[in-house]
Amino acid sequence: MSPRRTAALVAAGLALLLLALGWAGDPLATDMSAVLRAPSVAHPLGTDELGRDVLARLAHGAVVTLGTAGTALAASALLGVLAGCATGWSASAPAGLVRAGVDVATALPPLIVALVTTLIAGPSAVALLLALAGVGWLPFARQADALTAQLRTRDWVLAHRALGASRTRIWRESLLPFLAPATGALAAVRLPALVNTVAALGFLGLGPPPPRPEWGAMIAESVDHLGTAPWLLAAPVLALVAVQAIIGAALPRR
Predict the structure, then answer these.
(1) How far apart are the C-alpha atoms of 247 and 239, rounded to whole Å?
(2) Which alpha helices (DSSP H) does the chain contain, by range?
(3) Angle 93-106/54-89 helices, nearest 10 degrees?
(4) Looking at the DSSP assignment, which residues form a beta bridge with residue 47?
(5) How far is CA 19 from CA 125, 197, 223, 240, in A?
(6) Which of 42, 60, 193, 203 is the most exposed place for a label (fewest CB within 10 A)?
(7) Which domains, ranges and CATH numbers included, belong to the chain?
């Protein structure tokens, strides 16, 4: 195992251990006698303006931030692969129109599209998930379309079709396994940006409504206390940096 992967595994293990410690705490429990306390044994990452334990909020917020990003990524990959398979398998004019529409939509900034969608639908976890998946499927569709178009002209695929194999069987046994490695690689590359998008929308107040903890919302809440309680900003920011570093270290180099 390479040093980069070893470092990634060690960092991931330490992060999971820290989050496990925080998971045991109540992220919503307030203690007005312990407002804005600095990190200590009782509160390893300090407390916020309502006396809530920052480590507990960071741990429970990870489920929201990383869980939303992961779920949106899985939904985007599934929808995009199915759409790309459908257009790549067909050489018809409607498929070409869909392909052109996907190419145009891919040029739209994902953060702006998600921002507009969540503004219209209102802040909620479901609206955030739909907004992210609504634009996240496009790159997967383009990739699946290109690879499917290559695969459907292979001799062994043509032989299967000549022998009467159904499209469902060819897709299940040949096409989807062929697409799996490329889809997984694209998902790994897109995950860090998606985590940042979830946090950015949370920072703007377009994530799950308070008091539910979320890393972007925690950053927004820390702005008024930068001078007196810098740990409020440091905790979620360092968590986001750690996620980017771990994913980046785990990705294979070319």
Answers:
(1) 12
(2) 3-23, 54-89, 93-106, 110-121, 125-151, 155-162, 167-170, 176-203, 215-222, 231-250
(3) 150
(4) 53
(5) 21, 21, 23, 13
(6) 42
(7) 3-26+42-250 (1.10.3720.10)
Give pTM, 2 decimals: 0.85
Residue 89: predicted pLDDT = 84
pLDDT of residue 142: 92
Question: For residue 127, what pLDDT is reported?
Answer: 81
CA distance from start to end of the chain: 16
Helix (H, G, I), strand (E, B) or coil at 53: strand
Question: How many residues are listed for the chain in this entry?
Answer: 254
How far is Cα 28 from Cα 83, in angstroms, rounded to an integer? 42
Secondary structure of residue 224 in the 3-state scheme: helix
List, in order, residues 6 or more apart from 6 with CB less than 8 Å away. Answer: none
**What residues form DSSP beta bridges with 53?**
47
- Residue 143 CA, chain-centre distance (Å), reads 18
Distance CA(194)–CA(211), nearest Å, equals: 23
Separation in Å, CA 78 to CA 8, 68, 84, 107: 27, 15, 10, 20
Q: How far apart are CA 69 and CA 46, in angstroms?
A: 27
The confidence score (pLDDT) of residue 111 equals 76
What is the amino acid identity at position 247?
I
Cβ-based neighbours of 199, under 8 Å, separated by 6 or more: 65, 214, 215, 216, 219, 236, 240
State which amino acid sits at residue 18.
Answer: L
118 in Cβ contact with 201 (< 8 Å): yes
Regions in the chain scoring below 70 on pLDDT: 1-2, 4-5, 8, 93, 252-254
